[in-house]
Amino acid sequence: MKGEPAVLTGQHFLLGDHACAEGALAAGCRFFGGYPITPSTEVAEWLARRLPEVGGIFVQMEDELASMAAIVGASVAGARAMTATSGPGFSLMMENLGLAAMMEVPCVVVNVQRGGPSTGLPTLVGQADVMQARWGSHGDYEIVAYSPASPQECFDLTVKAFNTADHFRIPVLVMADEVVAHMMERVTIPPAEAIPRVERKRPRQGPGGNGFLPFKADDDLIPPMVHAGEGYRIHFTGLTHDERGYPAITAPAHDRLVRRLVDKVRQKAWEIVEYEEYRLEDVSVVIIAYGSTARSARRAVGLAREQGIAAGLLRPITLWPFPGERVKKLAERVRAFVVPELNLGQISREVERFTSLPVLGVNHAGGAMMPPEPILEAIREVAG
Amino acid sequence: MSRQEIRLAGYGGQGIVLAGQLLGKAAAIYDGKEAVFTQSYGPEARGGASSADVVISDGPADYPLVSRPDFLVAMFQEAYERYRPEMVPGGLLVIDSDLVKPLPDEGPYRAVPATRLAEGLGKKIVANMVMLGFFTAVSGLVRREAVEAALRSSLAPRLLDLNLRAFGTGYDYSASDAPPHPTLSPAGGEEKGEGAPGVRGKAA
User: Fold this and answer.
1) I want to staple A284 with a disulfide (CB 3.0 to 4.6 A). Which of A190, A310, B108, B176 is the partner?
2) What angle do CA B125, B129, B131 make, to 5 degrees?
3) pLDDT per residue over A36-76, tens digit each?
4) How would you classify the pairing of strands B92-96 and B71-74?
5) pLDDT of res. B12
6) Which of B28, B63, B65 sits opposite A185 (nearest CB)?
7) Nearest residue of B to residue A152 by CA position?
8) Are A346 and A131 in contact (CB under 8 A)?
9) Is the pLDDT of residue A205 over 80?
10) Domain spanning A10-194 has what CATH number?
11) Does residue A316 sit at the B interface (CB-CB below 8 Å)?
12) A382 within 8 A of A360, measured Cβ to Cβ
């Protein structure tokens, strides 16, 4: 099928959702399994047209459980694979997200947040899935979650999500929100050769030999990844397993495996963490905001500065791992933190873990973008 | 021009959203500015009020939403009545003169019979492009060439000619000597735009 190339090098005026889709294609994603749900539908819609153009596969699954299972399967078969969903669908994906974590299968999930719980606000913005992103599936695991604040970041961070997923052999989340997903802005797509690409680590030894251990990790705690159908004897299971990949239902085996799954990410957290700083020089009040709310916060910083208050913004680009060390460092020289978010207090709890200074939440349950004014009010309150 | 907020409003099916997207694209891709496009997003597929918001600025547009439009384009009476009170004082109102009847105390505004001109071109559905052309001319926010480039890179080739003609018709109307629409015949009042023929004064 003829069409446009996989990497649409150039400048475009794109919807956030479409930018996520183009980011996936540019990253080499060639499989999407999903179930359309507002406000993420445009991701699926776009890829349904684009994937066949570039030799990829788009499958509309029967639900979100199957969607998540499909991308895990596609990834085991060697493809870069993604799904996109929102609130209720994200909940349904939690079980197989854990499966991906346990089997160390890289994949990318875009969750365009809307108001919850349950069906909530199908067409309106929310940011209340932040803790679900961290802890949503049962058991201990580490997750990486990016938070785009613009269509450009929808593109860039989706590319990055694939690289992080493949490097660590983990599921990675792109936690967009409805405002960012449904706004159009300029998106600059670099030439194909300039798109960063991190390959999966692959076994050094070919199939056929004896004693190959597909889940034996290297010093970085990451085992090279074997794909289905390459000739290796490989067994993937959600059960606790040993280095052969076979079930090992014992306390020592479980502790060894889960500790490794967690540590392979945790020991590199400082490499993964990303944030943006805005006017943090000479600052006394630091706003910590992410996604669309960070854009209101940026405006609030300007308004506060006009009133003579030294406010600045720390914008986590990775929600998980959270830039807690940066918060700790800032806490040495500021008066207070203000944490606006479209939920009733999620990232503010994380901030509190890293400082004993006052942390003032600015909270709304969602349904509309956070305006700058209540953030400004909070800044004034803590500035005294 | 640090930050300008534009709201285009009409009813579903008039192509308001496309006009807004093209305006944003023209500014962001072809005119060296920053632009954000948003729209109110409801469950309805068509009909009812439709609006498209564009913020154009020289620097990064942090807050992406329109709260107090500097420019209001109304292609429907209800849209005019609903959004007019939110405009900043001294903002520019632009209307489809056949579809919107301004209140008696309305200040200066610009008007174009966009839908009628589109019918004259053979397709009522290009009224949005007539309006976009007119708005481009009277607002001065984005260069004509930039908007035309946005049309060329966004529309299917078979639709391009008609849409460009519609855009040009609206653009040129702003400089024409087209007489005021009889039902909206204004009298007196201050003028905006240094006596340009399309300017309407305050209604008597």
Assistant:
1) A310
2) 105
3) 999 999 999 999 999 999 999 999 999 999 999 999 999 99
4) parallel
5) 84
6) B28
7) B36
8) yes
9) yes
10) 3.40.50.970
11) no
12) yes
Which domains, and CATH codes, for chain B? 3-200 (3.40.920.10)
Quick one: pLDDT band at residue B186, thresholds 50, 70, 90? Answer: very low
Residue A152's H or E segment, with its range, is helix A151-168
CA–CA distance, B17 with B65 (Å, rounded to integer): 15
B106 Ramachandran zone, left/alpha/beta (phi>0; psi -120 to 50): beta
B28 contacts chain A (CB < 8 A): yes
Closest alpha carbon to A342 in A373, A363, A314, A315: A363
Q: Which of B43, B65, B150 sits opposite A123 (nearest CB)?
A: B43
Cross-strand bridge partners of residue A309: none
Q: What percent of chain A has pLDDT over 90?
A: 96
Which stretches does DSSP call E strand in B81-204? 92-96, 109-112, 199-200
Q: Which residue has 């609006």 as its token pair? A: B51
Segment A144-157 mean pLDDT: 98
The yes/no answer on whether domain A276-383 falls in CATH 3.40.50.920 is yes
Residue in B with minimal Cα distance to A151: B36
**C-alpha to C-alpha distance for A362 and A285, rounded to whole angstroms:** 14
The letter for the amino acid at A179 is: V
pTM of the complete model? 0.94
The residues spanned by each domain of chain A are 10-194, 276-383
Residue B42 has its nearest CB partner, among A123, A296, A302, at: A123
> Is the Cβ pair B25, A13 closer than 8 Å?
yes
What is the arithmetic mean of pLDDT over A67-94?
Answer: 98
Can you tell me the distance from the alpha carbon of A309 to that of A303, in angstroms, rounded to the nearest whole number?
A: 9
Mutate which of B21, B41, B58, B147 to disrupt the A interface (most A C-beta within 10 Å)?
B41
Collapsed DSSP state (helix, strand, coil) of residue A351: helix
Tell me whether domains A10-194 and A276-383 share a fold. Answer: yes
pLDDT of residue A267: 98
**Tokens 């803590």 -> residue:** A382
Backbone dihedral region for residue B189 (phi beyond 0: left; psi -120 to 50: alpha; all else: beta):
left
Say how far apart CA A377 and CA A300 lie, in whole Å: 9
Closest CA to B173 of B122, B123, B116, B125: B116
- A119 vs B: CB within 8 A: no
Q: Which residue in A182, A186, A298 is closest to B62 by CB distance?
A: A298
| The pLDDT of residue B42 | 56
**Crossing angle between the packed helical segments B157-173 and B144-154, to the nearest 10 degrees:** 160
How far is the C-alpha of B103 from the C-alpha of B117, rounded, in Å? 23
Q: What is the DSSP-derived secondary structure letter of residue B126?
A: G
User: How far apart are alpha carbons B20 and B7 in whole angstroms?
Assistant: 8
Cross-chain residue pair B41–A179, CB shorter than 8 Å: no
Greatest alpha-carbon pair distance for chain B in Å reads 46
Query: Token pair of B17, please?
Result: 């959203």
Give me the residue label for tokens 């990303």. Answer: A274
- Angular region, A157: left φ>0, alpha ψ -120 to 50, beta rest: alpha
pLDDT bin (cut points 50, 70, 90) of residue A35 is very high
- Output the furthest CA–CA distance in chain A (Å, rounded): 72
